[in-house]
Amino acid sequence: MEAFNNLAVVLAKRGKVDEAPEDFRSAVSLDPSDSDAQANLGRALLSSDHPDQAIAHLKMALQLGPETADLHTSLGAALLQTSQAAEAIPHFQKSLHLAPRSVSASYLLGEALVETGRGPQAAAQWRAALELDPDRLPILDHLASLLAISSDANLRDRREAVAMASHAAQLTPAQRPQEIATLSAACAEVAEFDKAIEWKRRATDLATRQGDTQLAAILANRLAMFRAKTPIRQP
User: How far apart are CA 42 and CA 53, in angstroms?
Assistant: First the structure.
């Protein structure tokens, strides 16, 4: 059993996540009470885009113990990816109880809070995470977007949105359209529509060149909104 587990760990570290789950499955089948094997299989399934299958193994690993912050974060991520944000929240909170400086858990907790309609709590969570890691790009991007386009007028903060989106854009590789699109939305929020149009055009062109037709279509629609001097609002 240990041989299967060790081989799968090596494959996962080498990036061969599609091969790793089968060896972890072999380890689990030989000893279903092995917490490490259950946890490794769950993580491998999560990494290979099978969060629905990962959930049962991660839950079993937690049941077998020991309880760790990483296990709670992994289970929360699997639940979040399967549209179970409300169920994910307690796991991210437990992870942060065990590891208060976990920026990854803070980021994912914010995502789950947004999904459950708790934007102000998400913003507070992301701000706290940025105090630990001011350059964490996904958090800068998502918080800037939330502050720029939230339907909650009390949550929107134009100046902070522009500042965070600008910082994210400075950190962003030139070929990432999402952060450029966020900066565009923030510019529209402060009525700088010429800048918003220019940034959105760049983001749309990048998405098109990268073959992301779905994102390109969304950005093109928002470009038309900016030309009509209409900022974006979340539904």
Answer: 8
The domain defined by 1-66 carries CATH number 1.25.40.10: yes
What is the SS3 assignment for 51? helix
Q: What percent of the chain stands above pLDDT 70?
A: 88
What are the residues whose beta carbons fall under 8 Å from the beta carbon of 86, sequence distance 6 or more? 112, 116
Domain locations in the chain as residue ranges: 1-66
pLDDT, tens digit, 9 for 90 and up, residues 132-149: 999 998 899 899 989 988
Quick check: 3 pLDDT over 50?
Answer: no
> Which residues have CB under 8 Å from 128's CB, separation 6+?
106
0.70 exceeded by pTM: yes
Distance CA 210, CA 229 (A): 28
CA neighbours within 13 Å on the CB side: how many for 50?
16
